[in-house]
Prior knowledge:
With 108 residues, the chain is mainly alpha-helical. Helix content is 83%, strand content 0%.
Amino acid sequence: MVSTGRAFLVYTSLRIVLLLAVGGLLYLTGLRGFLLVLLAFLLSGALSLVWLDRPRSQMGAGFGRAIGKVNERIDRAAAAEDPGTLRGQSGAEAQSDAEAEPDEQKAQ
Length: 108
């Protein structure tokens, strides 16, 4: 398994190399200026969909793992803040219990 940062660097580096290679080939065919840049980006983007599938999927999996870790931390923090989770209640049950307690105290 490749780390997220390394997968990102590998994929980005390969995209840049592919862009430069396609641009170089187009330059050798005689294209210049804006058309050269436009076609180089379009062609290298299309080629990268096929040729760079594995590095792109590794990078996507790494980002997915990173986002999953962040979501887990958010869920743990939310559970720690929610008083109902300590007693096995959901957040909505704990909220309704907390709202009902002052009414019961007023009735006494």
